[in-house]
Design a protein that fits this description.
Helices cover 50% and strands 7% of the residues. By secondary structure, the chain is mainly alpha-helical.
Length: 301
């Protein structure tokens, strides 16, 4: 398989874009794999996003020209563009998750439930009812052990190696707990953050406030200290901004101004091990990104 950066030729900006997109897509791929979302479903979502972005960029097009222009802009085949234009955005793309199907069959099929209607604890191998027969009732294209490993990885099943039995850990297909609310916040927060960053890149870099401070060469103890400081700063921001925003809303209402704008203010931190400790001679490094003001005397990149 060729490297996508090969198509960028000698265009530095295009290569930088590809590197940036690779960084951005990696955590979304991690989330998808971690929650059992098949690649085909994610691919469908990406195609829809490309079509919608192309439509937004060419908002003056009539319906007859839209398919051709969107196809030219995105590189997606005309037939696919036509199909995607007919799909309502609120509909989730259909996709087949074998882990989901095994789970659903285990919880609904009579032979895999006990007298109380609960999913049975199954022998891993052997005649029905066993996990092997359950998996093969769903598909014979994937080995039962691979499906078991996937369910265990998602936290949905447990394999008792001593007894060689398998039991479900949840009564609903919600990997590692009910994360619906967390995912809703994730979608709202990350999409707005990404939109702010994209708007800044596409414009002059100052449309939205979007900055960050970076530091390395820290210890685990320092990370805990930083977390406490960040939490304090967030509490101070909330204490100052919420009353201010409420006053603004009331003032806009009293003055009869069009109230058609929304605002999201966020704060995030991320830390991970770098896998190495800096040498004693290394200077401490901090830098601020997407700055709107000239750098101070401190070392910034």
């Amino acid at each position: 398989m060729s490297d996508p950066s090969d198509d960028a030729g000698d265009q530095p900006e295009q290569r930088a874009l590809l590197r940036a997109l690779a960084q951005v897509l990696e955590p979304f791929a991690t989330l998808s794999v971690g929650r059992g979302l098949p690649y085909a479903v994610a691919q469908e979502l990406l195609k829809r996003a490309f079509v919608q972005a192309a439509l937004a960029a060419r908002g003056d097009l009539g319906s007859e020209r839209a398919v051709s222009r969107v196809s030219t802009t995105t590189g997606i085949h005309r037939r696919e563009v036509s199909r995607l234009l007919q799909v309502r955005l609120e509909e989730a793309p259909a996709g087949r998750s074998l882990a989901t199907e095994v789970f659903a069959h285990w919880t609904t099929a009579r032979e895999y439930r006990d007298r109380r209607g609960r999913p049975r604890t199954l022998a891993r191998q052997g005649p029905a009812p066993s996990f092997e027969s359950l998996a093969q009732s769903v598909t014979r294209d994937v080995h039962p052990r691979s499906l078991l490993d996937e369910l265990v990885r998602l936290g949905l099943a447990r394999h008792d190696a001593e007894r060689d039995t398998v039991e479900l850990q949840h009564d609903a297909f919600v990997p590692r707990g009910d994360t619906s609310r967390m995912l809703a916040f994730f979608g709202d927060n990350v999409s707005d953050h990404a939109r702010a960053a994209v708007d800044n890149v596409m414009a002059d870099g100052r449309r939205h406030f979007e900055q960050a401070v970076f530091a390395d060469g820290l210890s685990a103890r320092s990370i805990e200290q930083a977390r406490r400081a960040i939490t304090a700063q967030w509490k101070a921001l909330i204490k100052a901004m919420v009353p201010a925003l409420e006053r603004m809303i009331e003032d806009d209402r009293a003055q009869g101004r069009p109230r058609d704008q929304r605002l999201r203010i966020g704060l995030y931190s991320y830390n991970e091990s770098t896998g190495r400790a800096p040498a004693a001679a290394d200077a401490p490094r901090t830098r601020r990104t997407l700055r709107a003001k000239p750098p101070s005397r401190k070392r910034h990149a």
